[in-house]
Amino acid sequence: QVRLVESGGGWVQPGGSLQLSCVASGRNFTSNTMGWWRQRPGLEREFVAAKSWVGGATYYGDSMKGRFVVSRDTAKNSVYLQMNNLRPEDTAVYFCAVSDWHYTYDAQNYIHWGQGTQVTVSS
């Protein structure tokens, strides 16, 4: 059974940083894209960042570019999200997810999801 477990969420002041981690089990995802989505209160799930298995390409949601960095450790079947210069509008539940697509911004193309970790940015 595939399982994705996120960790690293919490509370941080505006301008601060957090690193999220996601460990996958039950299957090796070396040939999959692993990424992050978030859901802010009252809003639909939003693409954050992903790292493809194809050449290690990375891509980001518009508001995350220059602030967030996604990385992977294929040996640990893990994906990470370094979040810098956090803003109150980054407050959300962050989800780890896996896709068979090399490049997609569509949540329907992600086949496995974690339970999420809460990130709260406030003073």
Task: Give a written overview of the molecule.
By secondary structure, the protein is mostly beta strands. Helix content is 0%, strand content 50%. The protein is built from no helices and eleven strands. The chain has strands at residues 3-7, 10-12, 18-25, 33-39, 45-51, 58-60, 68-73, 78-83, 92-99, 110-113, 117-121. The strands form two sheets. Strands 2, 4, 5, 6, 9, 10 and 11 form a seven-stranded mixed sheet that branches. Strands 1-3-8-7 form a four-stranded antiparallel sheet, with no helix packed on it. A hairpin with a 4-residue loop joins strand 7 (68-73) and strand 8. The model has no long low-confidence stretch (mean pLDDT 95).
N- and C-termini, Cα separation: 40 Å
SS elements, strand count: 11
Order of helices and strands: EEEEEEEEEEE
| Poorly predicted parts | none
Tally of separate helices: 0
Q: Mind summarizing the main beta sheet? A: 7 strands, mixed
Helix content: under 10%
Rg, rounded, reads 13 Å
Shape: globular
Given the helix and strand composition, which structural class is it?
Answer: mainly beta
Strand content: over 45%
Relevant terms:
single chain; 123 residues; mainly beta; seven-stranded mixed β-sheet; four-stranded antiparallel β-sheet
Topology summary:
Blueprint: E1 3-7, E2 10-12, E3 18-25, E4 33-39, E5 45-51, E6 58-60, E7 68-73, E8 78-83, E9 92-99, E10 110-113, E11 117-121
Q: In brief, what are we looking at here?
A:
The protein contains no helices and eleven strands. By secondary structure, the protein is mostly beta strands.
